Amino acid sequence: MLSISDTGVGMDADTQLHMFEPFFTTKGFGGTGLGLSTVYGIIQQSGGTVQVWSEPSKGTTFKIYFPRVDSTREAVGPEPAVVTARAEQALEAILLVEDETSLRTLSRQYLQNQGYTVLEAARGTAAVAICDTHRGPIHLLLTDVIKPGINGQELARRMCEMRPETKVLFMSGYSDDAVAQDGLVEEEITLLQKPFALSALGFKVREQLSSVLRARRFNLQVPLRYRRLGEIEWSKGTTENISRSGMLFRAEQVIQPQVQLEINLVLPPEITGLSTAEVVCKGEVVHALLSDTATMRPAVAAKILHYEFPHGAHSGAE
Hints:
By secondary structure, the chain is of the alpha+beta class. It folds into three domains: 2-65, Heat Shock Protein 90, CATH 3.30.565.10; 93-210, Response regulator (Rossmann fold, 3-Layer(aba) Sandwich), CATH 3.40.50.2300; 223-315, Thrombin, subunit H (Beta Barrel), CATH 2.40.10. The chain is built from eight helices and 15 strands. It has a six-stranded antiparallel barrel. It has a five-stranded parallel sheet with strand order 5-4-6-7-8, sandwiched between helices. It has a three-stranded antiparallel sheet with strand order 1-3-2, with helices on one face. The two termini are 45 Å apart.
């Protein structure tokens, strides 16, 4: 058992009810409220417990109980050294999203020393703006899972719709199993657990950038028809890539985000798994981008809200 006590202002009963909740803080805008939440998560995942005693004006005592370790077991040897990426290998651009200033600064400096170009943001909204305005490629999104405002899952979803080629590496004080069980991200994730050594950060970043993405998105040029909901006339377009949850296509004109569309196209066998099949989708525009050349039509990214096969069952997008 580890006991930690102070003689500070203490906590009332209502504060103690919420103190382990993510983002709960008594500091107003001066704190993020993730410290006790992270401590609680690590101890729970390790099989331990936390007990708290506190009274206003009398201070606070935390007692952390750890699982007993069998003293007859062999001593655990040192972990193998982590091989870091060589600077000449690290030429990619990384978008680092972390609201804790010191961790973000330290991670940025380390990655820059490894040769990466690092774009940084404290909040998800700022990250989306960078993704929208940055002219060059962004090879990796490195983001915390639990964040105020736009969380890591939502940020990754938005960014991958805008930049399908971008890979994602999550950071969290919780284990990947706990994060998946809480529904914060999909089960198939790559997670760097906090706290981490900088060498481990470099290894995980290099590993993710060098990995081959699963074939979830199909780079196919397929003709389609689209129209705004309620309109009669169809417009013509051509897909750039398609997945089960969204598509990027060339349109006749720029379509503003949040506009809902009806989209009709014929999917090839490599997507349906059987034979060619007509599909009618209901989609929502998430991003539109004008082309750099006058001859190329604007690109529109749309998430799929609903789809159906005229001669089969209908389903919602995953």
